[in-house]
Amino acid sequence: SAKDTPYGKEDMSKRMETDQFAKYMAIAMVNKLDECWISPEPGLWVVYASQYIPSIFTWLYKRYGLRHMKKLRHNEEKKEN
Hints:
The chain is mainly α. It is about 60% helix and about 10% strand. It has a domain at about 40-80. The chain has a two-stranded antiparallel ribbon. The longest helix has 27 residues, at about 55-80. It is flat.
């Protein structure tokens, strides 16, 4: 399903269930973590790599990132038609 936003339609089917998110947050709180990252893959890996291994991430992004972004854009254009 989709929800109208000021920026267009948002795909609600990829959202995490509330109870699953609450479970992850409870685990983080019980373990007294200062920080926890909850995100679908591969988004989490991309953010993690850019934060902790920026030189390797930059090389990988220059090599594969543009191709991947073009592929994503092409898939989005297909969905709209």
